[in-house]
Amino acid sequence: xxxxxxxxxxxxxxxxxxxxxxxxxxxxxxxxxxxxxxxxxxxxxxxxxxxxxxxxxxxxxxxxxxxxxxxxxxxxxxxxxxxxxxxxxxxxxxxxxxxxxxxxxxxxxxxxxxxxxxxxxxxxxxxxxxxxxxxxxxxxxxxxxxxxxxxxxxxxxxxxxxxxxxxxxxxxxxxxxxxxxxxxxxxxxxxxxxxxxxxxxxxxxxxxxxxxxxxxxxxxxxxxxxxxxxxxxxxxxxxxxxxxxxxxxxxxxxxxxxxxxxxxxxxxxxxxxxxxxxxxxxxxxxx
Length: 287
Hints:
disordered N terminus, alpha/beta
């Protein structure tokens, strides 16, 4: 076995840059994962900050406003989710009421301060990146310096970026799963080179980890080439992901431990924290 297989797990703080607190987990009154449960799982996992985006947005607002969140040492970075319900997944890009909802949420803000981004949103057909509301939201995000969290394919990345005033030179976009459909590493590399604000989030990424629970060689090389451009996330889109939250985070810690220490810290914490100006957690608060 190689030296990487024996590396100690990363032990520093984690920034979960793709977290949902959807109504199936907790609807404000009932559910299998009340706030005390999810905050306990974050605390046990050494997660000290989250990008909260939920269906509906009430879930994120709940986490942002609870004193227990602060007591758990978890910083909440709220995003406006484009989904009021599951029906919105398939038509948000052409639904003017979604744009109105986003504007209303941005004006209202959250108990944790202003919204810092929009998303996660999905495009099951990349051509819908040119939908009228999709175009307006991309322009709005760049103009207001909002970070976008997008679950899309590589073709849609180009289309979304083209719909910003800077043609993708200024927009900051977290690419959920860095292409869940499995865009080749060289294609990811080319997109990173083209768009300086493109950041890859690594949950569910096909081909990322090999049999030794370490990064596959091509992905390890890409993270070393772009050490400031990747973040991690749980993607708690269904309750099963909450049930396995601790093991998901432990999996990240395993392969992060196989990276140089400075790169591991960037991917685990610094890159996401830098996007939002999140202060470092207090020493000794990692786990």
